[in-house]
Each structure stands twice: as C-alpha cells, then as structure tokens.
C-alpha cells in the first residue's frame, strides 16, 4: 500500500485544496526561507520587490538610504535598470509590510507581495456555543492583517489558520480570538510533521542555550530550533531524510564537556484534547451541581411546599409589609445562580453583542434577567407596600439556568464520543519498539527498547508475535501473518515475508519479523489517515450553509418574536379583550405576558442547528476511516450520495492489477531470446503493470531457454506513448512495445497472422503486447489480469442502488468488452488516454448526471479530479490518492458501495438532525408563545422551555452518534 508515501501533502483541508495549490506563484516579489547568520546569531530573510517609477541612479540611492535607516534591515540593493529592490532583513525586528510602506513613502510604487511563505497553525477554540460563534471566530480571524484563510469547526472546537508569518504570529492570532470573546490554545504551528520536543538537563544559563541552539542550527537537516525556558523544552524541526531525533540527542550530548555536560530526553506533551475535554465535562458538571444546590430549595419553596399545607404555611409569614419568608428566601438563593453560576452567559452575551452578533448566551441572559429583575421589582414593591400582591419568578431564572447547564453537560459528554473513532486510530501506534543493530552478515549484535517517536528512517525494528508494528516499513527477515483490520477493515491476517510492506499500527500475529523503517512520524499511513480524518472533520459541508444563513438572523428574529408575544398578551389583556380567567391566580396580565415572552426567548436556541451537520460529519468520517474508507471532508461526503454513474478504470481497479503473461509467440526471423531481450530493454523503464509482467516473463523465458549472457538493458531515445506503449533505440535497432494503436501510429504493418493471434486473445479478455523491431512485428505476449473476485457482486449491487457503471480503459475494445461482460458492465470506452478519460467524464456530466471515478494509477488522476467524486484505490499511486475525494484504503471494490451508502446514511442523518433542531423551534415557539393556552390551558413555563432547548441540542448529538452503529451493506467475502 502506497498511502504512506504522501509526505504530508494530504493534510490539506477539503477537496479544493487537494486539486489546486493554496498559494499561487507570482513574479512581482520573491521571498527566501530565512538563513541563519552565525556571526550575529540572527535569522536573515530576503525580500525582492518589483518597483515602478525608478528612472535613474539617484532614485535607487534615495530608496536605499530610506530603507537602510530601518531597524532590522541589514542590506538594500536597488537596480534601476531592472526596477527591482532586494532587501535583507531580520524578521524578528521588522516585517515585510513595514518595509513596503517605507519604500512607498519615498514616492515609488511596489507591487503587492503575493501569498507566499504561508504558515499554518491549528488552534483549540473555547467558548463556542452555536454556529454564530464559529462564524464570529472566522470573521474575527479573517479581519486580522496577515491571515489568508481561516476555517473554524464548531463540533471539533478547532480552527485552522493559514497566515503570513512576516505579518503576524500565532500569539497575535490567539489575541484576536480572545478579543472576540473566546479562549484559544495553540495545538500545532507550522510543519509539525518533522518536529521533536526534547527535555534538556544540565542547562544553567543563556550561554548554554545559545551553544546548543547554534550547534543544532548548523547541523545538516535541522531547519529550526526554539527553546521554552519555562519547561526547559527544546523544539527542533528537521528533515527526516537527513537526520532524526536520536541523532539530535546524540549531538546535544556531544556538545557538552566537563564540567558542563548536557543531556536530552524525549518530551511527550500531555494529550491536550482529552485533558481539555475532561476539564470541560468537569466544569459543566460542577456548575450544574452548584446551581442545583440553590435551585432545588427555590423550587421547593415556590412550587412544592405551598401545595402541602400545613408544611408550607410558614412560607407565607410576612417579614415586613407584604414581603413573605418564601419570597425573601427565593431571592437570596436565586441570586448566586443568576450572577455567579450564570456569569458565563453574561460574559458570552457581552462578547457576542460587542462583535455585533447574537448567540445562545444572549437569549439565555435576556430570558433569565427578565424573570429575575421583574421578581426583584415585585420584592421591592411588596416590601414598600401594604396592599400590593405580586407573583415573583425567582424559580424561573434559577431553574432555567440549571436546566441549560444540565443540557450543556450532557451535550459535552455526547460530543466527546463523536471523536472516539479518531482517538482509537491515534492510539493504534505502540509507545515503544525494539531497535536492533545488524552486523555485515545480517546477525543481530545489539537490541534495545526505545520510544516509537525516536525511530528514524532505515532503522531495523524487531517485531515479536503479539506486538504492534510501530512504523511503516519493509520486512527484511522472517515470516508472519499481520492483522491489518484496525486500519484496512480486512479481518483475515495477511501473510508477510521478506520484501513485503507492513503498516504502522497493525498487529503481528505469529512470527518474528525484522522490519526496515521506510516511513516514520507523520509520513506513516496511520498518521496520514488521522490527518485526513481531522481535515475532513474540520471542513464545512455545503449543506451547513443553510444553518449558517439561518443563524445570522435567528437570534434577532427570536428577540422580536418574544417582544411581540409579550405585547400580544399584555395589551389585549389590559384592554379586557381576553377573558380574565386566562390569568392564573396570583398573576396579572403583565406577568403572564412576561412568562410567555421569556419562554419564547429560551425555547428557540440555535445551538442544535449549528451542531446538526458537523457532528454527523465527524462521526461519519471517523467511522468511515475505521471501515477502510477515507472521506476527505464534508464536500465529498455530501456529493457521494448524489452519484448516479460510476466510471471504473480497468487495470488495478476492476482487475487485481498484477497481470501475468500466459503465452508468447514469435512472428519473424528473430529468435524468442532476441524478442525477450528487446522487450525487456524497452519495458524496463516503464512502471505500467503490464510492462512489469512482460519484463518478468521475458527474463524467466530467457533463463528457461538456457541463455547465460546478460540481456541488453540499455535503451536510448526512450519515449512513452500514453495509452499505447513505449519505444526507443536498443543498440542499432528501433524497438516498439505496445498495442495495435502504437503499431498503427508508427506505420508498422500488422499481418493476418498477428491479427488472428490478437483477435483470438481479445475474445478471452487478454491483452496482446506486440514487439516490433525495425518496423516489423517480431513477436507478441498475451497478458491477462485476473478480475477481482468481488467485482461482479459490486456492479450488481450498485445497479440495485440505481447507479449505472461504465468502464474506461487504455486497452483495446475487445479485451475491455470481454472484461466488462464478465463483471456485468454494459458501456465500455476503450483505447482511452488519460485526457480522454477526463473528457468522457465531462461528457457524462454535461448530461446532468453526478459522476464518480474509481481509479488507481497516475493516468487516472485527471479523471479523478474531473469527476464530481474521485475514489482512489488505496494501493494505487500517491498522485491518484491526492487527486481523489475518497480513498479506499484496502483496495477492495466493496468499499465503493460502502462510501456511497455511508454518504447516503450520513445525509439522511443530517436531514433528520435538522428536523430535530428546527422541529423543536417550529413546534416549541408557538407553544411557548401560548397558542394552545386559550383552548387547552397548556402553557410552557420558562424553566420547561429551557429544558426543551437543552434537549434539542442533546437529541441532535445523540442522533449523530447513532452513525457509530453503521454496518457495511456488502461484507467482504473470500473465495
């Protein structure tokens, strides 16, 4: 499997970033990666502007003198002829923007510098309650100078920010988020793929730190070194192909000499997400329990004891004038709930209103304050009046806050489970591994247990039975069976022997293996999967746009509706239009209207609406990854359920992809040995599976013929003809190896005997590879690629789902038709080159159908990009995997069905979530407004409205969690 070769490129967030570069090139300005000036111990960056308006040397001198005075600018060179300015500067002292502004102050125009040298950071965002919160964070980030792109995930509570490090740093980004009223912590910054954190010992002063940093920075392969004084932690960025963590630790130890000796050990930072999740759960639980401590007595005094005479009679005892014991106690107990426990709603409301938006906190604060301060008014009135009898609502505000906190607590617990699949994937890699050293004869001379993070490329790792494979690698010794189900979903263990690849995180079952590490750290397949799933969970699905649009106007609309509700009940009631029996005992029209208004405010919460899509996408992408289907974001997940036509590549997709030669013939005076030599020489440079089969067969045939000499492998003027074959000069002969189309293109005659051989094999679904030497067909190989056992079953099942299947192949029509007939596909496009495959897909799209492409090779990547949904076979090439929207990790066609079915189930779940979310509001708001009250006497008290609001968010998260029980429609069968 070649998924692990992606070298971190898959980290992109969403489909569009995989199909086009995030940053576009420009010739207006060039920026170099900072160099390190060892004399001055400072980093130097170089920036080049294209300057308009330079007419003579004096112009250049004026620019040079103006820029040369800037603190941090080390050199300025201006060319009047080319109209360019090259400035070397220290990025820690001055940024590119300030340089550009100073340059323009001299009266010249500098071209805008493009978005180059862009850094990426991931942040944990705290305090987001609904979609309007995530939009506010995005808006706040996008307004910051230097931020190029920001994506905020509500369910994941993370932000991914692309920024220009010359204009802004991560601390300023965090400040911008905090200014918007939210908390933020840095998860990762820059290229985390090749970073190691080391704990230093023996470091006593600044001189020690400078010595270590300068030594490391001058080490080949080290790109950046930073030191955290508080934790004595050294963070080193490095090139994995050149050095590694063990080498860096050794360098640090070798720097020191008596009496100053330094040592370094691996620093493993605590798992931030889990720690913060537990902290948040604990926080909401404690706040809810504290709230209950005061709310339960208030509830008893207000609603239970008065109904149980004589036990509640003491509550009616008057302290002064009309103020009773019950009122006073309710006031005293409710106040801490309102202002201490409920402080979070005030803070949230303040920040929301300051950024001119409104969220759940605004609604809760308005509702609870209306109830509390009206009740305070009643208490003051009863205290000062001898006749006033009013009804206070202290229990309303206290119970409202308690129920909302209970709902948030349950929601946080449930949301934690939505990322379970991702946590399980992350936990697959073992903590330690056995590193072995071999002598020249391949014998183990040293064995030691090390932390998995210290493994470097080309290390030899010993994996005992029952142990997990720590990194991706190649078996160099031993035989065993490896269970890859945790990554690929394939239940049956796979036999491994020398030369076979193993995947990090899989389980070695019954034999001892020595594995050479080929991919470590974030280059492993497991890390790529985790990065893809994280990117998918952060990406916003198009269907979420509906929720985003609704949330923008939702809260203001609710406030207006609540005010209208109060007016509709209060004014007609006061005017006597409504009958008096509508007003409950101990209430007046103002109080009844106020309760209806508060209920409307509270029941209509936008939280559930914001959680409807992201929670479902989180669970589905995590579940898909555990089933062997990697879905790159909400866009792919949403598009896949609309698929009506699937275009399949043939070789390596419908077929096993490992063709074998079943016959070889000679058509000329050349011997079989000569034909084999020529074919081997021409095909040796080709990566095509059929070429490899021909080369392997030719070598074996040559050996069987008893040839002792080495075959000719030197080829000149080698040329690849896409979809046709290869050609070149072998010695003094011109050789072509390929299909009939290649022969036709080079005017090589194909006689009746050759045609007969081709026709005979094509009817058997075999491909004929013709070998032409000096313009004459000298021989041919008949190649067959066995069909995947599940291919026919998958095509049949897709048909039952209402999806039509088409096959495109670079092979000839007869072979393509024979294969298609065998699997049950009716439409075949044969002899199609890579561009032709993409064109066929565009033709189908013009007919208004949503088209998916399933392929595995480099030649499939244009078609994968052109399709509405590209699905790459996991064992295929890196290019195909990057171009695709969905990756089928275990190369099983049944997962095409799984991907589409999971998409359909997820989209139906999202729609159901919207029904839950909007249903509560559509039904709850009229009931809260009192529409049923005149006819049935049923009304929704504010505390019960708060419970309904909390239940709506909880129901949406639980609805999404049901996707965890997803089962594949087609189970893997082995024959």
Unreliable spans are 1-39
Number of helices: 32
Question: How is the main sheet built?
Answer: 7 strands, mixed
| Nearest-integer average pLDDT | 80
What proportion of the residues is helical, as a percent range? 40-55%
Tell me, briefly, the overall form. globular
Write a structural description:
There is one protein chain. With 975 residues, the protein is of the alpha+beta class. The protein folds into eight domains: 45-112, Alpha-Beta Plaits (2-Layer Sandwich); 119-189, Alpha-Beta Plaits (2-Layer Sandwich); 195-269, Alpha-Beta Plaits (2-Layer Sandwich); 273-425; 432-520, Calcium-transporting ATPase, cytoplasmic transduction domain A (Distorted Sandwich); 542-617 and 904-965, no CATH class; 629-655 and 789-897, HAD superfamily/HAD-like (Rossmann fold, 3-Layer(aba) Sandwich), CATH 3.40.50.1000; 660-784, Calcium-transporting ATPase, cytoplasmic domain N. The protein is built from 32 helices and 38 strands. The strands form eight sheets. It has a seven-stranded mixed beta sheet with strand order 26-38-37-36-27-34-35, sandwiched between helices. Strands 1, 2, 3, 4, 5 and 6 form a six-stranded antiparallel beta sheet that branches. Strands 18-17-19-25-20-23 form a six-stranded antiparallel beta sheet, with no helix packed on it. β34 (804-808), α26 (813-823) and β35 (827-829) form a beta-alpha-beta unit. α18 (607-626) packs antiparallel against α30 and α19 (634-640) crosses α30 (894-928). The longest helix has 35 residues, at 894-928. The radius of gyration is 35 Å and the shape is globular. The model is unreliable at 1-39 (pLDDT under 50). One of its GO terms (molecular function) is copper ion binding. It is a multi-pass membrane protein. Its EC number is 7.2.2.8.
């Amino acid at each position: 499997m070649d998924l692990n070769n992606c070298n971190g490129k898959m980290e992109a967030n969403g489909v569009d970033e995989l199909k086009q570069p995030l940053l576009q090139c420009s010739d207006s300005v060039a920026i170099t990666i900072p160099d390190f000036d060892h004399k001055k111990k400072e980093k130097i960056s170089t920036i080049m502007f294209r300057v308009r308006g330079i007419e003579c040397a004096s112009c250049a001198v004026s620019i040079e003198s103006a820029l040369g005075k800037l603190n941090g600018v080390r050199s300025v060179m201006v060319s009047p002829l080319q109209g360019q300015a090259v400035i070397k500067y220290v990025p820690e002292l001055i940024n590119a923007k300030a340089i550009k502004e100073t340059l323009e102050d001299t009266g010249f125009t500098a071209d805008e510098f493009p978005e180059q040298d862009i850094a990426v950071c991931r942040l944990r965002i705290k305090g987001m309650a609904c979609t309007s919160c995530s939009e506010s964070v995005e808006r706040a980030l996008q307004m910051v100078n230097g931020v190029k792109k920001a994506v905020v995930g509500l369910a994941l509570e993370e932000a991914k920010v692309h920024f220009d490090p010359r204009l802004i740093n991560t601390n300023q980004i965090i400040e911008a988020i905090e200014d918007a009223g939210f908390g933020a912590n840095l998860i990762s910054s820059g290229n985390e793929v090749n970073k190691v954190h080391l704990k230093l010992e023996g470091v006593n002063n600044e001189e020690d730190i400078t010595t270590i940093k300068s030594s490391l920075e001058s080490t080949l392969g080290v790109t950046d070194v930073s030191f955290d004084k508080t934790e004595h932690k050294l963070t080193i960025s490095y090139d994995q192909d050149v050095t590694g963590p063990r080498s860096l630790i050794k360098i640090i130890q070798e720097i020191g000499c008596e009496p100053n000796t330094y040592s370094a050990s691996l620093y493993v930072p605590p798992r931030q997400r889990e720690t913060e999740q537990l902290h948040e759960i604990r926080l909401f639980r404690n706040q809810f329990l504290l709230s209950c401590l005061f709310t339960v007595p208030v509830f008893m005094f207000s609603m239970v004891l008065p109904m149980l005479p004589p036990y509640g009679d003491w509550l009616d005892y008057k302290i002064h004038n009309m103020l009773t014991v019950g009122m006073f106690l309710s006031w005293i107990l409710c106040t801490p709930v309102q202002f201490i426990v409920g402080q979070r709603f005030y803070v949230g409301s303040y920040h929301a209103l300051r950024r001119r938006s409104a969220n759940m906190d605004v609604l809760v604060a308005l509702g609870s304050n209306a109830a509390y301060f009206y009740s305070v008014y009643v208490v003051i009135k009863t205290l000062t009046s001898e006749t006033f009898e009013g009804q206070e609502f202290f229990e309303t505000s206290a119970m409202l806050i308690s129920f909302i906190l209970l709902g948030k607590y349950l929601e946080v617990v449930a949301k934690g489970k939505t990322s379970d699949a991702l946590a399980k994937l992350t936990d697959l890699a073992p903590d330690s591994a056995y590193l072995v050293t071999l002598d020249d004869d391949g014998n183990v001379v040293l064995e030691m247990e090390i932390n998995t993070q210290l493994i470097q490329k080309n290390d030899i790792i010993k994996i005992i039975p029952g142990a997990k494979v720590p990194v991706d690698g190649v078996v160099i010794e031993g035989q065993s069976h490896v269970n890859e189900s945790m990554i690929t979903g394939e239940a049956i263990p796979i036999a491994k022997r020398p030369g076979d690849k193993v995947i990090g995180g899989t389980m070695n079952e019954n034999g001892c293996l020595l594995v050479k590490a080929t991919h470590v750290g974030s280059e492993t397949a497991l890390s790529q999967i985790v990065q893809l799933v994280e990117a998918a969970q952060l990406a916003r699905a198009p269907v979420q746009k509906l929720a985003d649009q609704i949330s923008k106007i939702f809260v203001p609309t609710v406030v207006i509706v609540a005010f209208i509700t109060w007016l509709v009940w209060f004014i007609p009631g006061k005017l006597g239009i409504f009958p008096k029996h509508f007003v409950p005992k101990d209430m007046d029209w103002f109080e009844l209207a106020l309760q209806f208004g508060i209920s409307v405010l509270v029941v209509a919460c936008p939280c559930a609406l914001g959680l409807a899509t992201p929670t479902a996408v989180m669970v589905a992408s995590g579940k898909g990854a555990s089933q062997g289907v990697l879905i790159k974001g909400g866009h792919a997940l949403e598009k896949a359920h609309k698929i009506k036509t699937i275009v399949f590549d043939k070789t390596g997709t419908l077929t096993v992809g490992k063709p074998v030669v079943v016959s070889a013939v000679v058509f000329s005076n050349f011997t079989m040995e000569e034909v084999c030599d020529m074919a081997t020489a021409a095909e040796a440079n080709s990566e095509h599976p059929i070429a490899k089969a021909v080369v392997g067969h030719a070598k074996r045939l040559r050996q069987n013929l008893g040839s002792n000499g080495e075959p000719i492998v030197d080829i000149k003027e080698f040329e690849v003809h896409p979809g046709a074959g290869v050609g070149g000069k072998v010695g003094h002969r011109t050789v072509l190896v390929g299909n009939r189309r290649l022969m036709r293109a080079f005017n090589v005659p194909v006689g009746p005997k050759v045609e007969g051989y081709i026709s005979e094999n094509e009817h058997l679904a075999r491909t004929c590879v013709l070998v032409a030497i000096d313009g004459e067909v000298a021989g041919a190989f008949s190649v067959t690629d066995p069909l995947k056992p599940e291919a026919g079953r998958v095509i049949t099942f897709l048909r039952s789902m209402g999806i039509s299947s088409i096959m495109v192949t670079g092979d000839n029509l007869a072979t393509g038709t024979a294969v298609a007939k065998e699997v049950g596909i009716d439409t075949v496009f044969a002899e199609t080159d890579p561009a032709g495959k993409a064109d066929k897909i565009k033709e189908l799209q013009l007919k208004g159908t949503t088209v998916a492409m399933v392929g595995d090779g480099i030649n499939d990547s244009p078609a994968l990009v052109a399709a509405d949904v590209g699905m790459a076979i996991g064992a295929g090439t890196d290019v195909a995997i990057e171009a695709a929207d969905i990756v089928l990790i275990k190369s099983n066609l049944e997962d095409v069905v799984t991907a589409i079915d999971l998409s359909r189930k997820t989209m139906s779940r999202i729609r159901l979530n919207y029904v839950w979310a909007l249903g509560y509001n559509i039904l709850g708001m009229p009931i809260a407004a009192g529409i049923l009250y005149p006819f049935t006497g049923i009304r929704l008290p504010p505390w019960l409205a708060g419970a309904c609001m909390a239940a709506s968010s909880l129901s949406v998260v639980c609805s999404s969690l049901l996707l965890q029980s997803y089962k594949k429609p087609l189970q893997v069968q082995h024959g």
